[in-house]
Design a protein that fits this description.
mainly alpha; 10 helices; elongated
Length: 211
């Protein structure tokens, strides 16, 4: 079953980017940064592979990926800024975000300020949700955009670079194919584990509410 899910996810990402080029990377990274579980760890390495065969440039792939991140982050920011905590608490469960995790992100933001957006965009998982506390705090939009893009670009560049280097060695080193497959399996396994945890925790809250 896991192999089937990996195949579907990777095939869909490949088809979108192959058909739409840079626009596909932009849209997929926007989806990821809008807090919809779509791992950039699959999107950007494939963009890097296209760099290795000359279809993309490395700087172009990193930049368009970061621009997509900025769009998705802006959507998450606006949800928080316009809808407040109620909107996040109502819809956050669909992206595996619990109130306790939002509280943690808010405290982190309150402690370190706007630089949290830059640092958060460099970290797995945290990068997806860091826009919420920024929106709740009404962080100035221009500063938010600058920090979000500045943090997203190195992330996108690093993943695309890895994809480009491995893509260039793809035919000469068959072992890389197995490693890529295992890497994709790990990403999807994390998503499946997160979904299972979310369903279980919600079931427990319904059937065993705290008093």
């Amino acid at each position: 079953m896991l192999d089937h899910l990996i195949s579907l996810l990777v095939s869909w990402v490949v088809e979108v980017i192959s058909a739409a080029g840079y626009l596909g990377v932009f849209v997929l990274m926007a989806i990821e940064s809008a807090c919809i579980p779509l791992p950039s760890e699959i999107v950007m390495p494939f963009a890097g592979y296209l760099v290795s065969i000359g279809r993309f440039s490395l700087l172009g792939a990193a930049t368009i990926g970061a621009l997509g991140c900025s769009l998705g982050s802006t959507i998450a920011y606006l949800v928080a800024a316009k809808g407040g905590r109620k909107a996040i608490e109502r819809w956050g469960g669909y992206v595996l975000l619990r109130p306790v995790e939002l509280d943690r992100a808010e405290r982190f933001f309150a402690r370190y300020g706007a630089i949290t957006v830059f640092l958060g965009r460099l970290l797995p998982v945290i990068r997806t949700f860091i826009s919420f506390p920024a929106g709740l705090a009404r962080m100035p939009m221009l500063k938010f955009q600058i920090y979000s893009f500045a943090g997203s670009w190195p992330w996108c560049f690093a993943l695309a670079y890895v994809g480009a280097v491995l893509g260039a060695r793809w035919d000469s080193d068959p072992t890389l194919r197995r490693l890529f497959h295992e890497f994709d399996a790990a990403v999807v396994a994390v998503l499946l584990a997160g979904s299972a945890w979310f369903i279980w925790s919600r079931w427990r809250e319904i059937h065993h509410p705290k008093r």
